Amino acid sequence: MAADLVRMVGIAKSYGPVTALAGVDFAVYENEIVGLLGDNGAGKSTLIKILSGTVSATSGEIYMRGKKVLIRNTTDAINLGIETIHQDSALVTQLSIARNLFLGREPLIGPPIFNRMDQRTMNEVAGTLLKRIGITKDIPATTPVSYLSGGERQAVSIARALHFDSDLIVLDEPTNNLGVEETQGVLRFMRGARDSGHSLIFIAHNIHHVFQVVDRIVVLRRGKVVADDVDPKSTTIEAVERIITGVPATG
Fold it and tell me: Domain boundaries in the chain?
């Protein structure tokens, strides 16, 4: 079995009297894509928010490669090599592709006191990255993100994660509201990221998309893990849907 990249142990989260997560154990191994599934309210988003540093757990522990870590905010998560790509891409649409790729981590040129961004380097790196992740159109790196399609915006977010060599890339509903071609592009990016040494968590309501790309499926229901080692190659979409809903097979 591959080594753990991330392991979350006994993760619990309560909002007053409401329990969002109840002692969840969740692991991601090196070089794999995990599909995290569950109905609305199952706890998927809460678990990912804890991992990405936007929400604190009520209790539980997180380990990276066997070492206990503290994730108190998004900066902690990024410094640990965890990059989260949300459905809305978390991009600044009025800024260029290059600026979005380096947002908050811009390379500087000249004396530090002038805080002058190295625009040429950012443009060159952006152009290379877009080709690397499969954008075949000649899109200048200076293009504002507002001019891009949904799939192209997702590509920029994924490119950012790849450039900063994130160990774990979390994709929260990345194919939602995308067309067929753009969806296939995002799935190709995911496979390419795994093949180049990254691990990924894929959260999606569309199980057909999940089955196309993941290595393993984990299912949450009402804040608890009800399946954590489902092999999409040896099961069916209908069987996974039954696990998600808790409805037993008939016949």
Answer: 4-245
Question: Distance from first CA to last CA of the chain, Å, rounded?
Answer: 35
Quick: pLDDT tens for 166-192.
Answer: 899 999 888 777 778 778 878 888 888
CA dist 200 and 128 (Å) reads 22
Q: Report d(CA 29, CA 100) in Å as an integer.
A: 29
Beta bridge partners of 84: 170
Please name the CATH architecture into which domain 4-245 falls.
Answer: 3-Layer(aba) Sandwich (3.40)
Least confident of 49-58, 123-132, 175-184, 218-227: 175-184
Q: Report the predicted TM-score, pTM, of the whole model to 2 decimal places.
A: 0.83
CA distance 74 to 182: 28
Q: Which residue has the tokens 């410094």?
A: 79
Q: Give the DSSP letter string of 145-181.
A: GGGS-HHHHHHHHHHHHHHTT-SEEEEESTTTT--HH
Q: Helix H segments across 94-230?
A: 97-101, 119-132, 150-163, 180-195, 207-213
